Amino acid sequence: MGTSVKVTDLRITAGQATLVDGVSFEIEAGKVLALIGESGSGKTTTALALMGYARHGCEISAGSIQVGQHDVLGLSPNERRRLRGRSITYIAQSAAASFNPSRTIMDQVVEPALIHGLLDRRAAEQKAVALFRELALPNPDSIGERYPHQVSGGQLQRLMAAMALITDPDLVILDEPTTALDVTTQVEVLRAFRRAVRDRKTTAVYVSHDLAVVAQVADQIVVLRDGKMREAGDTDQILFRPADEYTRSLLAAARPARRQGTAAAAQAQPPLLEVRNLSAGYGPVDSAGQPAVRILEGVDLTLYRGQAIGVIGESGSGKTTLARAIAGLVPPCGGSIVFDGAALKPTLAGRSREELRRIQIVFQMADTALNPVRTIEDILARPLQFFHGLRGEALRARIRRLLDLVRLPAGVAQRTPAGLSGGQKQRVNLARALAAEPELILCDEITSALDTVVGAAILDLMAELRRELGVSCLFISHDLHTVRAICDEIVVMQHGRKLAQVPHAEYDSSGNHPYYTLLARSVPELRRGWIDEVDLNIPGAVPAAQQHAPHPSL
Amino acid sequence: MSTTSNTHAAVTPPGARRRPGLPALGPAGWIGLLILAAWLIAAIVGPIVIPQDGTPVGEVQIFGRVSAAHWLGTDYLGRDMLARVILGARYTVLVALVSTLFASGIGITLALLASVSGHWVDACLSRGLDTLTAIPSKMFALIMVAAFGSTVWMLAITAAVIYVPGAFRIARSLAVNINAMDYVTVARTRGEGIGYIMRQEILPNIAGPMLADLGLRFVYVVLLLASLSFLGLGIQPPDADWGSLVRENIGALSDGSMAVVAPALAIASLTLAVNLVIDNLPGRSARNGAK
């Protein structure tokens, strides 16, 4: 049974910086409140504070937190410890990082009950099995004997929920529990969470950046930005009658509009890129020239000049390997890649500088894609010197033009990447690829690590660049929304094979490949009750995670 | 995440470009630098301004106490200890400096090569240097001295060879991580050569930790040279580095004579000074903060 929660004027500081400023909200017993905002908005910090916990270097400096009859901030450290893991429990974003890999799952799931002396070992295990069954986990009686690496990510996330629920807590804090999951898995996990929380009438706080996910589980929503509350209200009010401008921009970014690039090029001209029956993999190569692990199996793809093709698939579908094979980073073990009429050599060493210049790859994590010790100017200057031999004033002028092209102020040229925000870094990342004046840009999940609003701005930029420069692109993503927004065609991949190619006109038609339909339907919609209505039983479509659930014998 | 980058942006003034080498040392760094400079001057100028090797004239006092004539007392032959220490600086400071620079330089270069080259180069270099590590350093030094004699250059080369594998190991483990970064992959897809990737993409990112390692390695080299001298295998009399000075005068240890304490203190002050300077190098904290 849940309890009511009341937070008043919460203020959390780290040295001089204020992370959370004047946050107040109230949750009735048994209701679910969502804290929503982009990274750095203080949503996780606020959620952790509900347990009286502040991360190292942070301090809860003012305010009060009332959970049931406890004044959390007034408790002694010992009393708080008795509260944590028992009355208030926490489900972290990455279950994979939160489980100890060297102990069995059962050991870890029953631990809270044993530590707090609520149940003996046998009773706790029985309860855990009942929870596994309730959370719709496969083989509930034996799954506890496995180790964390032997179950899938979605299962691990539900096992962590079992750990949190085993002490019958009054308040559960869910910190982005589905963000790291594939869309099809996310639906299952969300359903399991929702049922468990509803049936118990547990009070819950759900932290997320995704409004559509939150719409499925929350009764109330608090919108945070830069540690301040922008808006609070019940879910329908926030979704349909937002009062705050920032909430409106979040909602707009969550419903990506179609961005018009160049019109799809006439098919009469020869294709720019032709991938024929491509296979590739990793690991030692055997005598027949086949790698130990095959990732790509006979993929065909044709891209015309000026076109944008989206490649979509769940984790492990081989979409990144496809991009890497085209870029020359993974040598193919079969098939061919023809670029502008000429076959490309399998490895980087075999390709000419001109060939390398014409295909550029942009990576997902701008943090690791920019050398932290070099200035933005140095980073952009190198491809200009390397490919075009520019120097002196011509070089500086070109760098200014590039920065302007990706909508960055010229002042950032002298900074190192540490002085830039995530979105700005991704723009520099794009500018570096553009510096080579490529004909094809391979974009590997370029918006996935960004906040919704920032990601939407990058998509706008991509569409603009396509219009202005006529550059073709292969856009790899796990997010159907993103791909639909800017691509002329979508290639659907699963287990290293291409399942379907869907042209723009048929995005919403019913005659598509069942797996595409499954992916399309799994994307949460921005309204309450979607999760109860959506039907994912599509004949012929199997989510990747279910096919590849590891066996206990592993 | 964005809060940290915001504070970073606020701290780093726009347009401020880090210039390595411009002294922004803290007070501790300056103290270290002064001590280091003093010993370097002693090493270079000492032999010029002290013409004789401290051989006493007139009345000889063995293990003399600290006095106005002999600021650090006298040694087991009655020579002035201050002169002996200053003359010894030449060997300890310069030999250690040269061999440390060699050891770290070779180690880092090989490590960069191993990390950017393919599997085979890496395996050969790693196993080869592991074999070198397996030989006990004193034994190795002993063999080298037995085979080639204990000239100053021989000692420097021996110490360098002994400490290459350690520098290589640390640099390689750092470089391998950097090599896996996307910006190195981007450089490869651009068609950059191995040399550029080693120098421009990887080296600047491992420089901070490798400088700290250099300081540590300098200490090891000083101690190795001192212990070799202590065993009588190092610099040969009448010349003496600080290790030899400790050994020569070990008889006075029970009296607490300055003859044995002074060279020991000299060794301690040198190693401390080097590490003070390196730990306070400008840009070091900024580099670490950026990670």
Helix content of chain B: over 70%
Q: Tell me the number of helical segments of chain A per DSSP (H or I, 4 or more residues long).
A: 22
Number of strands of chain B: 0
Please state roughly what percent of the residues of chain B sit in beta strands, choosing from under 5%, 5-15%, 15-25%, 25-35%, 35-45% or over 45%: under 5%
What's the SSE blueprint?
The complex is a heterodimer of chains A (554) and B (291).
Chain A: E1 5-14, E2 17-27, E3 32-36, H1 43-49, E4 59-67, E5 70-71, H2 77-83, E6 88-91, H3 95-98, H4 105-109, H5 111-115, H6 121-134, H7 153-165, E7 171-175, H8 183-200, E8 203-208, H9 211-217, E9 220-225, E10 228-234, H10 235-240, H11 245-254, E11 273-285, E12 291-303, E13 308-312, H12 319-327, E14 332-339, E15 342-343, H13 353-358, E16 359-362, H14 366-369, H15 376-388, H16 392-405, H17 422-435, E17 440-444, H18 452-469, E18 472-477, H19 480-486, E19 489-494, E20 497-503, H20 514-522, H21 530-533, H22 544-547
Parallel strand pairs in A: 3-8, 3-9, 6-7, 7-8, 13-18, 13-19, 16-17, 17-18
Antiparallel strand pairs in A: 1-2, 1-4, 4-5, 9-10, 11-12, 11-14, 14-15, 19-20
Helix pairs in contact in A: 7-8, 11-18, 15-16, 15-17, 16-17, 17-18
Chain B: H1 2-11, H2 27-49, H3 81-116, H4 119-134, H5 137-148, H6 152-179, H7 182-190, H8 194-230, H9 242-248, H10 258-279, H11 284-290
Helix pairs in contact in B: 2-3, 2-10, 3-4, 3-6, 3-8, 3-10, 4-6, 5-6, 6-8, 8-9, 8-10, 9-10
